Amino acid sequence: MNASGNPALVLNADFRPLSYYPLSLCSWQDAVKSVFLNRVSVIEKYDQSVSSPTISFKLPSVIALKDYVMPQRKPAFTRFNVFLRDNFTCQYCAKKFAANDLTFDHLVPRCLHGKTTWQNVVSACTTCNLKKGRKLIQNTDMKLLKRPVQPHSMQLQNNGRNFPPNYLHDSWRDYLYWDTELEN
Q1: Which of 19, 24, 112, 136 has CB 3.0 to 4.6 Å from 10, enough for a Cys bridge?
Q2: Three-state secondary structure of 97-112
Q3: With 0-12 CB in 10 A as exposed, 13-18 as middle and 19+ as buried, what is 40?
């Protein structure tokens, strides 16, 4: 049996995903290991089963941690989190891009002693980044969509919900807060 395509959605002890983007998933092997180590509860199962010489059981599709993991209050300053804060949108031309098609731009360029901080860095497409160059925005004909700020973890989580992954198993939908219509 090929179970490689059966990741488990990992929920915190409060039944919320640990993260939305990237979606908190683990391999079926890690999920099974965590079940046997009594670290998680199985909430939903796939139809596929795995067997050992003494036991057979269905693979977990949704698991919840038994111990609550406190989310970070202040998100790490990373390139990816800057893109997520800005919704993968160039802050100059307002077009959306994939993460590998974005750069980040210093509002006060480093050559003018600008710092690499949440408040001085924005997502930019290559075209806009080159157009702005080493100038201050007020010395260009470009406009900034919004002033950059340090985001809260919840803001990044909410932004991540706008980017559902390519694969969503039906058993996960009740635990993800996508904007889906509820059935009667």
Answers
A1: 24
A2: CCHHHEEEEECCCHHH
A3: buried
Lookup: tokens for 177: 């807060």
Nearby residues of 86 by Cβ (< 8 Å), 6 or more positions away: 122, 123, 148
CA dihedral of 166, 14, 31, 2, whole degrees rounded to 10: -30
Q: Reply yes or no on whether the pLDDT at 174 is more than 80.
A: yes
Dump pLDDT digits (tens) for 98-135: 999 999 999 999 999 999 999 999 999 999 999 999 99
Instruction: Please give the average per-residue pLDDT across 50-79, as a whole number.
Output: 92
Q: Give the whole-angstrom CA distance, residue 102 versus residue 83.
A: 8
Break the chain into its structural domains and give their ranges: 1-70, 79-154
Exposure string over 147-166, b if 16+ CB within 10 A, otherwise e? ebeebeeeebbebbeeeeee
Give the pLDDT band (50/70/90) at residue 2. very low
User: Is CATH 3.40.1010.10 the classification given to domain 79-154?
Assistant: no
Is 60 exceeded by the pLDDT of residue 67?
yes
